[in-house]
Amino acid sequence: MSETIIKALIAIVYGIILGIVTVPLSKKLASSRTEDPGVLAPLNKAYIKAGAVILGIGASLGLMFTAKDYALLIRNLAFLIPIFALSFVDAYVRKIPNSCLLSIMIGQVVYIIYNCITTKSPDIIPKVVFGFIFGMGVCLIPGILKIPMGAGDIKYSAVIGFTLYLLGYFESMVIMAILIALTYLYLKLTKKGGMKTLLPMGPFLSVGVVISMCVPLGSFIGQSKLF
Questions:
Q1: Which residue has the higher pLDDT, 3 or 145?
Q2: What pLDDT is stored for residue 1 in this prediction?
Q3: Which of 87, 100, 105, 11 is nearest to 43 (CA)?
Q4: How many of the other CB atoms lie within 10 Å of CB of 198?
Q5: Phi then psi dihedrals of residue 60, to 5 deg
Q6: What SS3 class is residue 69?
Q7: Distance (Å, rounded) from C-alpha 4 to C-alpha 148?
């Protein structure tokens, strides 16, 4: 059996498990953050569970065939669990669980230590620090401009800078902005809403994160000690 087929099978199996596990996990995380259990009813629907599996397979396949090494692949696949969970929670209760963000940061710390040991260089550390500070700083701007932005979104933004560094952060934000713009256009055309419709940022940003992990901007324009 060829290596490509083996990778594809592993990704598919992982994607199926990811989709099956993250829906009940999301429901458990969300139930402690809302006083109205009725808003979580859609998580029991078969189409939501099927959609989670399909998205899990797609994301897993994308990461499987684009990661530059196995350490990065393991890190990225592990990140899918909290990314999926926080996206579902934010979509239904407009809150991003700190536990999901913490698990991403812990995974990144492990990767940083491994990278420093194997490369015998601390070059990754400035990128992590700079990305974290930039991610946090950018999301403080809306508050200064009196534009409402949830604390969870700000923390998620900082975590993305911490894990994907400046270029990955920028790419994720651009993708998120495009997706939100398309969503508002759809709402406007179908007369289901408009620019004043409140949308959860988490799911859109998560899509940007996964795409950025699969197709990092740095692979096209070159890497930097800070970016």
A1: 3
A2: 61
A3: 87
A4: 8
A5: -65, -40
A6: coil
A7: 46
Q: Which two tokens stand for residue 184?
A: 């508002």
Q: Which of 96, 170, 97 is nearest to 130 (CA)?
A: 170
- The separation between CA 194 and the C-alpha centre of its own chain, rounded to angstroms, equals 25
Does residue 146 come out as left (phi exceeding 0), alpha (psi in the -120 to 50 range) or beta? left
**Distance separating alpha carbons of residues 96 and 155, to the nearest angstrom:** 9
Angle at 130 between CA 144 and CA 101, to 5 degrees: 75
- pLDDT for 208 equals 95
Would you call 52 exposed, middle or buried from its count of C-beta atoms within 10 A (0-12, 13-18, 19+)? buried
pLDDT score at 187: 87
pLDDT band at 168 (very low <50, low <70, confident <90, very high): very high
What pLDDT, on a 0 to 100 scale, did the predictor assign at position 191?
A: 78
| Identity of the residue numbered 143 | G
d(CA 13, CA 37): 31
Closest CA to 101 of 205, 18, 211, 179: 205
Separation of alpha carbons 201 and 192, rounded Å: 18
C-alpha angle 59/136/170, rounded to 5°? 45
Question: How big is the chain, counted in residues?
Answer: 227
Mean pLDDT throughout 209-217?
Answer: 92
CA 94 to chain centroid = 15
Q: How many Cβ atoms sit within 10 Å of the Cβ of residue 182?
A: 11
